[in-house]
Amino acid sequence: MPDTTQETLLDTQRISWYERACAHISLERFKSLVMSLVNHHSPTGAEKSASEFMVAQMNRMGFQARYQELAPTSGNAIGRRKGTGGGPSLMLYAPIDTHLESNEALDVPWCGPELRLDMRPTAIAQDDIVIGLGASNPKGMVAALTEAAHAIVDAEIPLRGDLILAFAGGGMPMTVPQRESWGLSSGVSRMLTRGVSPDFAVIMKPWDFVYYEHSGLMWFKVSVHGTMGYAGIPRGTPGFRSSIVPAARIVLELERWLEQYPEQFSSPQVRPQGWISAIRAGWPERVAFPSATTEIYLDIRITPDQSCASMTAHFDSVMREILARNADISADWGVIAAIPGSRVSPDNWIVRSCLRAWEHTHARSYPGSPAMAGQTDAAMICQLGVPIARIGYPDCPPELVPEALRAGLGGMGVVHVPNMLLPIRTAVYAIIDTCARTRAEVGCS
């Protein structure tokens, strides 16, 4: 991580603008926006209501905002506040879709025994926290970036460069077959190839740190083969063999490999993880007939130093070694999805600006970024040529989270409103530090 201690921070004029803008930050307005966004249900591929709501919100703020349709039920919200000219453009970005449908028939029991309060698209305020599906991620991130922009507008800060607010559908690391398989950064890909071309971008995600490396992902499917059987056939009958029991052995072998995987491939800011995420075999309604194929699905995160091709080759060698130890098992495998990891130079303007912002808002030296493996749209944004830095926010204090909502990932649906003040201030700083300068000052031609 670059050292910012010797850099020139905001001058007196820009500091006064920063303080004036921060005086216009309203956590009550932020809280109200989070609750409204939670109440606009936006599962991946069905974000139209939430995106159209944000278009109206940005237009009221004085942005030139528009809805960008992706599909009949899916779309992006894009707003632009034009500067006076001659400055760099900055995009503040967050996805707007949630990872759960909040539908008992589709989500239970895979999300748990029931849909908890943080898995439902109904906002609940309990003192300083808001509970509801996506209240923290992504709705809290959308609201925080919007509040930073709102403060800039209300304070009438003179920006040279354009300020862009961008909230895309299809951002979750998932695909939805019933809705044209949206997901895996489909929305932001369309956005950046259909008219949105900023000089720099800032994405907000969980963790109160600054990242210039962005994890990629690869999804693999392993198919273990047997024969279709019948429950009345004795074990060992010639011509009949299970696919499910051999698949269990493959799962254990893969899990042992995945435990060692991060040590081999970590980069400065990404410690890649891998999980066996789904297993599928047979017909639950035809239990008398064991399946001829058992499918194992893995999500494996990759660093900016790993190409998708090299990871494919590595996984191939892993599977060949596993089968060499288990010669009685028949299996094949392949990639079903891939997004490369990406890296912005730590010396890039937007990375250094976000580090300066973090240090100013936290009033201390930056401690460094713990390595992570969270995959975001930042990887795709960077791959499409936009330098992007990731900023974030701390978790809700555990003692404030209702006990019933503490286990597992849940609906990423508990946000502590006071915790969002520093990240909003950080975004305000980055806006002024970037858009209130000339293009030459930030290294843009």
Shape: globular
Count, helices: 11
Q: Classify the helix fraction into a percent range.
A: 25-40%
Q: Which strands sit side by side, in order, in the main sheet?
A: 1-2-6-3-7-14
CATH architecture of the largest domain: 3-Layer(aba) Sandwich
Order of helices and strands: HHHEEEHEEHEHEEEHEEHEEHHEEH
> How many structural domains in the coordinates?
2
| Main pleated-sheet profile | 6 strands, mixed
Give the termini distance in whole angstroms.
25 Å
Care to give the gist of this entry?
By secondary structure, the protein is α+β, with helices and mostly antiparallel strands. The chain has helices spanning 12-23, 27-39, 48-61, 104-107, 139-154, 186-192, 244-265, 308-325, 349-362, 378-383, 421-435, and strands spanning 64-71, 74-81, 90-95, 124-126, 129-131, 163-168, 200-206, 213-214, 216-225, 274-281, 293-302, 330-339, 342-343, 388-393, 414-416.
Walk me through the structure.
- The structure is a single chain.
- With 445 residues, the protein is an alpha+beta fold.
- The chain has two domains: 298 residues, Aminopeptidase (3-Layer(aba) Sandwich); 124 residues, 2-Layer Sandwich (Alpha-Beta Plaits).
- The chain contains eleven helices and 15 strands.
- The strands form four sheets. It has a six-stranded mixed beta sheet with strand order 1-2-6-3-7-14, with helices on both faces. The chain has a four-stranded antiparallel beta sheet with strand order 10-11-9-12, with helices on one face. Strands 4-5-15 form a three-stranded antiparallel beta sheet, covered by helices on one side.
- Helix 1 packs antiparallel against helix 11, helix 5 packs across helix 11 and helix 9 packs across helix 11.
- The longest helix is centred in the middle third of the chain and has 22 residues.
- The protein is globular and about 85 Å long.
- The two termini are 25 Å apart.
